């Protein structure tokens, strides 16, 4: 990353609330072809989330603590703040001297842009302004939020506009928090009803919906130059697993998340 930063555009996509088991099953079954074609070996890497809900996890990721490989470490990190005694800062790590990765990339000349999704990015109150406030430019509308059946295609349209308006020479760090997987997601299954509610199956249908549109996002992110992309979940969620529902709790379905990083060549879709 020490060589990538400064020469490439950067894309970070958090598929908010996506479970690892659902993501892995859909990739293996060929149900998310647009994502799977970019996954190394066609499979998601199994990792552990840095937090059990959106706010905590993103605070950690923006400090350089991406989801950790689900195997004994230490595991060298792509990004890290400079501090003495770090055991996961390696020769290739991009090291920043600011409080967070976003401002660290801004200091390197990047335009930092957030396209928010869930409520922690809606800027409708003090708490919802903390994470998007790290960025030089942030976008959120109700159409991007969890209650919108077309949230992701609306988010992608905004991202396309952002990229199109940037000067070609301007490096970009684009962050997109995808809200479609988060509850409520029942409306992504044809014929489903609000009364039937959300389930593991509707969660999977939401990921299929995201897959249908993510090629547009990849195309925009790589339209100007080679782009380094990270696509991962910030945490999972439960649908009655062992009696649990939701997240912000210590269940395997919450802590285990899918992760991938890869390069997008110019013109990728």
Automatic annotation (TrEMBL):
Gene3D superfamilies found in the cross-reference section: Alkaline Phosphatase, subunit A
Residue intervals of the Sulfatase N-terminal domain: 10-252
InterPro entries: Alkaline_phosphatase_core_sf, STM4013-like, Sulfatase_N
GO molecular function term, any single one: transferase activity
This protein's record includes keyword Flavoprotein: no
Top-rank taxon, per record: Bacteria
Keyword Hydrolase carried by entry: yes
A Pfam family recorded for this sequence: Sulfatase
Keyword annotations from UniProtKB, A to Z: Hydrolase, Transferase
UniProt protein name: Sulfatase-like hydrolase/transferase
Organism expressing this protein natively: Streptomyces arboris
């Amino acid at each position: 990353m020490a060589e990538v930063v400064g020469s490439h555009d950067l894309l970070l996509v958090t598929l908010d609330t996506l479970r690892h088991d659902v993501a892995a099953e859909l990739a293996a079954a060929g149900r998310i072809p647009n994502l799977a074609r970019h996954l190394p070996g066609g499979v998601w890497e199994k990792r552990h989330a840095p937090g059990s809900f959106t706010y905590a996890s993103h605070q950690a990721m923006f400090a350089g603590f991406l989801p950790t490989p689900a195997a004994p470490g230490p595991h060298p990190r792509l990004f890290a703040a400079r501090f003495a005694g770090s055991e996961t800062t390696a020769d290739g790590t991009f090291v920043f001297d600011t409080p967070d990765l976003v401002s660290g990339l801004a200091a390197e000349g990047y335009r930092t842009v957030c396209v928010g999704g869930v409520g922690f990015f809606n800027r409708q109150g003090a708490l919802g302004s903390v994470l998007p406030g790290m960025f030089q430019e942030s976008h959120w509308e109700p159409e991007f939020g969890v209650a919108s059946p077309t949230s992701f295609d609306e988010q992608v349209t905004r991202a396309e506009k952002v990229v199109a308006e940037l000067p070609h020479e301007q490096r970009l760090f684009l962050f997109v928090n995808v809200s479609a997987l988060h509850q409520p997601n029942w409306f992504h299954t044809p014929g489903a009803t609000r009364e039937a509610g959300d389930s593991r199956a509707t969660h999977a249908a939401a990921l299929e919906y995201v897959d249908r549109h993510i090629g547009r996002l990849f195309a925009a992110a790589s339209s100007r130059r080679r782009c380094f992309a990270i696509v991962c979940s910030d945490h999972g969620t439960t649908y009655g697993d062992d009696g649990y529902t939701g997240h912000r709790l210590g269940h395997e379905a919450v802590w285990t998340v899918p992760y991938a990083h890869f390069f997008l060549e110019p013109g990728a879709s």
